[in-house]
Specification:
Layout: H1 2-28, H2 36-52, E1 76-78, E2 88-89, H3 92-105, E3 113-119, E4 122-129, E5 132-138, E6 144-146, H4 149-153, E7 168-176, H5 179-191, H6 200-208, H7 213-217, E8 222-232, H8 242-251, E9 260-263, H9 266-279, E10 287-294, H10 297-303, E11 313-317, E12 322-334, E13 339-351, E14 354-360, H11 364-370, E15 377-383, E16 387-393, E17 418-419, E18 427-429, H12 438-446, H13 458-466, H14 481-485, H15 492-505, H16 510-516, H17 524-534, H18 537-541, H19 545-549, H20 556-567, H21 569-580, H22 592-595, E19 603-607, H23 615-624, E20 628-630, E21 639-642, H24 648-656, E22 659-661, H25 663-670
Parallel strand pairs: 2-11, 19-20, 19-21, 21-22
Antiparallel strand pairs: 1-6, 3-9, 3-10, 4-5, 4-7, 7-8, 10-11, 12-13, 12-15, 13-14, 13-18, 15-16, 17-18
Helix pairs in contact: 1-2, 12-13, 16-17
Bound molecules: 2-(butylsulfanyl)adenosine.
The site of 2-(butylsulfanyl)adenosine (IVH) has 15 residues, from strand 3, strand 8 and strand 11.
């Protein structure tokens, strides 16, 4: 028994080392050596072993990056060494002035500089004790910051364990969001009607200050480290210069930017700054300048600091890049989820490395606030160095011929009514058969939790749409195996399987159909409530606002959205077509008699929070099918249904070898 245990411990440790190595290769070196699938297998094996042997879980295990629960607020932490900011230089003359001060303070000693990129993100402090990441904090006011350890742990380029167990090491660096992720995040936010972040720094800050680490985990943040704070070394020599510090940090497995240069004098430093000023558009992340630091740490100490900033470093800020041009037109486009976004068509102008001919206007409010009109002369810049935006209108240049823009009332792609919901900045198309939304709509319709059509994933959906066979979800139910066989990569068998799966979905319970329709704000839970209350989709089509808001848990937002959806003639026609094609639109009478026996004799224990059901609802579902719910786990328990943050019942189930199922598996089991 002891021997086996040792072996498991060794396997767990080997898996952790292996995963850390691949995290390092992927997230720090950007040079992976295994496929995602191979990586996932290692992770799955580790997770499985840790599930079986929970007492072997350590906080630095790669499985523990996202696991923290949302918190109430952040705890304040005091920085042992204050986190200073940098004095700014805006011109070559400012830099030469900085150099003169350094020269005179060092009294003729020779010195050199390290010149680095100034990353446009958020300064953080990472503390490692004996090589283990124990605390991460924001800069705050420099003296006190906020403890954001759980959020920083989700950043995969931050090692949870260093290559060497240095006694105490506080590392400082910049957390940032790559340009590509910034563009994608803003696009997603606009799709959801949320305000866009102005630049990657705000995006990084907003993502790090999340009370729920799971949100941070989804934001694709990364880090460059550029210095140290507190340090205690027992057995090794401390670095003597900043360039050695960078090498030392790199050697520990931390992510250090490779674009830096040791410069022998201020001329070399200025030349290096100019190189990156001209080339910054090539970088996959935004920089807002360069940082020039005296290299020798002894000389840094000699120069000392002022209250706010070190005398041995300066930030050279790039001037904001702007250009003047004319708004030729304002057009609107329909996104994948129906958001209508206005875009300015510009007279082409060269700006920050590329020719710009369009600028996003985000939404109607922004156009109104900035008073942007067709024909206006405007100043444009690139948010986060990538997204062209109108900064301001040059109103003094107006001729009187400029035209005020208004949002269209009908969707440019399908003609359905365009609505703007209360408290939302975005306008949306309400058409469920809108071609602009078809792909997303179909993928959602077929997904698990919705109509759950096996074999109808995104790739097949795309084939069906591209071939013209499916123009709205009701077309799915008219497809024939013959038609599907004609598509690439489909054999007779797979075509028939798909047609069968589609046919089976016709008799799904009503709540699945309601959810599948993709009505805004109507998630799985609201769909269940609506199905239960109305019992027939045709009754929902004619429901009034008052009736809807009177239903427990249905608030104004959902009610408004259901009404907008059901009022759109295109959607009513779609539902009629679904009915005609044989899709079930009435709720089953889920009487005990109808389902009796399915779970007869089975005992369930519920633990943790379920996403779509309250505990007493889950209990009812089990009991109505003849099952029993018990409050404690024993050998007689058949299933433990584990939601989020399960308690000790989970561990007990693992110990006793009782089957543990998640919410999805539970719903499948009871046939919901
Ligand atoms: S050194 C004591 N190096 O710029 C000086 N800062 O205004 C410590 N930053 O708060 C800063 N890239 O958030 C340093 N390569 C770099 C940097 C950098 C970005 C940020 C950092 C700092 C701010 C200074």
């Amino acid at each position: 028994m002891g021997g086996e245990h040792e072996e498991i411990k060794r396997r767990i440790e080997a898996l952790r080392r292996e995963i850390e190595k691949h995290d390092y290769r992927y997230y720090v070196l950007d040079a992976p050596t295994i496929t995602d699938a191979q990586y996932d297998r290692l992770m799955a094996e580790l997770q499985q072993l840790e599930r079986e042997y929970p007492h072997l879980i350590t906080p630095d295990s790669p499985t523990q990056r996202v696991g923290g629960k949302p918190r109430e607020g952040f705890v304040t932490v005091r920085h042992a060494v204050p986190m200073l900011s940098l004095a700014n230089a805006f011109s070559e003359e400012d830099l030469r002035e900085f150099d003169r001060r350094v020269k005179s303070a060092l009294g003729g000693e020779p010195y050199d500089y390290v010149v680095e990129l100034k990353i446009d993100g958020l300064a953080v402090s990472l503390t490692y004790r004996n090589g283990i990441f124990v605390r991460g904090a924001t800069r705050g006011d420099g003296e006190n910051g906020e403890d954001i350890t759980a959020n920083l742990k989700t950043i995969r380029s931050i090692p949870l364990r260093l290559n060497q167990p240095v006694d105490l090491l506080e590392v400082r660096g910049e957390v940032y969001m790559p340009k590509k992720s910034f563009v994608e995040l803003n696009a997603r936010r606009e799709e959801r009607g949320e305000p866009a972040f102005a630049n990657p720094r705000n995006a990084a800050a907003g993502s790090l200050r999340q009370l729920d680490p799971a949100v941070t985990a989804g934001r694709n943040l990364t880090i460059f480290v550029y210095g140290t704070g507190e340090m205690e070394f027992a057995h090794r020599e401390a670095p003597a210069s900043h360039s050695e510090v960078l090498k030392f940090l790199e050697g520990l497995g931390l992510r250090v930017n490779t674009h830096y240069q040791v410069c022998r004098n201020i001329d070399e430093a200025i030349s290096y700054c100019r190189i990156w000023q001209n080339r910054k558009a090539e970088l996959p992340y935004a920089i807002d300048g360069m940082v020039i630091k005296v290299n020798s740490l002894a000389q840094q100490a000699l120069l000392g600091t002022t209250m706010k900033s070190p005398r041995w470093a300066v930030a050279f800020k790039f001037p904001p890049e702007q250009a003047e041009t004319t708004v030729r037109d304002i057009i609107v486009s329909v996104g994948r989820t129906g958001v209508i976004t206005p875009t300015a068509i510009l007279e082409p102008v060269f700006l920050a490395g590329s020719t710009v001919s369009r600028a996003t206007l985000h939404n109607e409010d922004i156009i109104r606030d900035k008073d942007i009109r067709i024909g206006d002369r405007v100043i444009v810049h690139k948010a986060g160095d990538v997204i062209p935006e109108v900064v301001e209108v040059l109103k003094e240049k107006r001729t009187g011929a400029e035209k005020i823009f208004t949002m269209p009332r009908a969707c440019p792609a399908c003609g359905a009514e365009v609505v703007r919901q209360t408290n939302e900045a975005a306008h949306r198309c309400t058409g469920a058969a809108c071609p602009a939304q078809l792909l997303e709509g179909l993928i959602h319709f077929a997904s698990r939790g919705a109509m759950d059509i096996a074999g109808l994933g995104p790739a097949v959906v795309k084939q069906l749409v591209d071939s013209g066979l499916v123009r709205d979800v009701s077309d799915l139910y008219r497809l024939t195996a013959e038609q599907v066989k004609g598509l690439e990569r489909f054999a007779d068998k797979s075509a028939e399987n798909l047609i069968n799966a589609i046919a089976e979905s016709k008799s799904n319970p009503l709540h699945r159909l309601i959810f599948a329709l993709g009505i805004r704000h109507v998630g799985e839970r609201a769909a269940r409530i609506l199905a239960e209350h109305f019992g027939d989709i045709r009754r929902i089509m004619d429901a009034g606002y008052e009736e809807l808001v009177a239903i427990p848990e249905i608030g104004p937002k959902i009610a408004e959205s259901v009404i907008a959806f059901m009022h759109e003639p295109q959607n009513r026609a779609l539902i009629e077509r679904l009915v005609k094609n044989g899709v079930n639109v009435v709720a089953e009478k889920t009487t005990a008699a109808a389902q009796n026996g399915k779970l007869a004799g089975k005992t369930f224990v519920l633990t943790g929070t379920l996403a779509s059901l309250k505990r007493d609802e889950a209990k009812k579902l089990i009991e109505s099918r003849g099952g029993k719910v018990s409050s404690s786990v024993s050998k007689k328990t058949d299933y433990v249904v584990a939601g989020d943050s399960p308690g000790s019942k989970y561990d007990k189930a693992v110990q006793l070898g009782v089957a543990i199922i998640d919410e999805r598996e539970f719903l499948d089991l009871i046939g919901e």
